[in-house]
Amino acid sequence: MSDAPNTVGGGSLPPAASPLTRAALEIDEYASSLGWDMPARLFALVDSEQLRRSDPQLAKKLGLTEGEPGLTPIEQDELPAGMELDKFLGTIAWPDMIAGCALVVERLMLPPGAEQSRPKNASEAQLAEWVANHPAREEVRITAAVLRGGAKETALRLRSKDIAREVLTGPDLVPGLTEALLATFA
Q: What per-residue confidence (pLDDT) applies to 35?
């Protein structure tokens, strides 16, 4: 973890259904403020009340108010350049005080049904090129968040609809990514 945590503020977000959903939306809003074409970002999720009790000075610095429930996202050091994401996630071990984690990645996605035109027996490089050149491809920013106990949430922002009210949320939007994040707590 980083010595000087970089946290996410969610001043203008409406109340969300759960602390995990709120954290995912706060992180999405933060990532949105940085623009597109950014590297992946990893966040630890800490119980805000526990953080206030264990480190009142840090809580004050982060603007956490007394009695405010929720999760505080703390950005971690940059991911190693050139390392595949799944391999990187396999190297993570979180201390007990970390309630969950979140990851922001940008990807290209295809609409349902696009798989029918997928080239058969193509290599990974050929598939990547096919997706990159597909006329119906969509650039997306995925914010996947999980809690140690198994709860999952995803915020998905389309580059073509880059406004907060268009962000899709749900626990199973990118199940492979949330499962990989949950494995970091195993």
A: 95
The one-letter amino acid code at 159 reads: R
Selected residue with higher pLDDT from 84 and 1: 84
In what helix (H) or strand (E) does residue 43 lie, and over which residues does it extend?
strand 41-47
For residue 99, is it within any domain?
Answer: yes
> Is residue 64 one of the residues assigned to a domain?
yes
Q: Which of 4, 10, 39, 14 is nearest to 27 (CA)?
A: 10
Is position 29 within any domain? yes
From edge to edge, which strands make up the β-sheet containing 168-170?
6-7, 71-75, 41-47, 98-109, 138-147, 152-158, 168-170
Residue 101 has pLDDT above 60, yes or no: yes
pTM (two decimals): 0.83
Whole-number Cα distances in Å, 97 to 21, 39, 92, 153: 20, 26, 15, 20
Nearest CA-CA partner of 73 in 42, 49, 106, 96: 42
- Taking CA atoms, 171 is separated from 86, 150, 152, 179, in Å, by 20, 11, 5, 11
Taking the alpha carbons at both ends of the chain, their separation in whole angstroms is 18
User: Which residue range is the domain that position 17 belongs to?
Assistant: 6-106+141-183
Number of domains the chain contains: 1
Identify whether 115 is part of a domain: no
